[in-house]
Amino acid sequence: MTYLGIDYGKARIGLAIAMPPYIMAMPYKTIFNDNLAVNQIAKVVKDKKVSQIFIGYPIDLQGQKSYAANIIEQWLETDLKPTLKQLLGDSFLRVCQISLVDERFTTALATQKLCETGKKSKQYKKVIDQIAAAEILNSVL
Crossing angle, helix 106-117 and helix 121-138, to 10 degrees? Predict the structure, then answer.
């Protein structure tokens, strides 16, 4: 039973994985948010035998749903769920739970962690989204 964390963005989508004993999520990969993105996510779900998916859900500082939250809801319902159902079968969505998780400060935490490693900000783009996805997943472990 593997968990998948997703940090959805307009340009890139970060993925993180947590496997038993669920001590810590590990950054997995960053994919471009293009017409192949959901197929790539479905492949990860299948290959890693994912049982739960946690998607970062942008809530503002007042605890209200942000504009970006509407985009994520639409992506989930019109792209991700139908693709998972088509590629992995109807029964998959009955056994795999998909949850939206408050992602406030995850990118800030990811940036802080990258700064602590001494990486230059130009190098952040390659990994920031998968580290943010790991922060999302770590928040539920």
Answer: 130
Q: How do the domains of the chain map onto residue ranges?
A: 2-138
Question: Is the pTM value of this prediction over 0.70?
Answer: yes
Mean pLDDT value across residues 116-137: 80
CA distances for 65 relative to 28, 58, 72, 101, 108, angstroms: 27, 7, 11, 12, 19
Rounded CA separation 1/25 (Å): 13
* Residue whose entry in the numeric block shows the structure tokens 């139908």: 82
CATH homologous superfamily, domain 2-138: YqgF/RNase H-like domain (3.30.420.140)
- What pLDDT is recorded for position 106? 78
In this predicted structure, the answer to whether residue 122 has a pLDDT above a threshold of 70 is no
Q: By three-state DSSP, how is residue 52 classified? A: strand
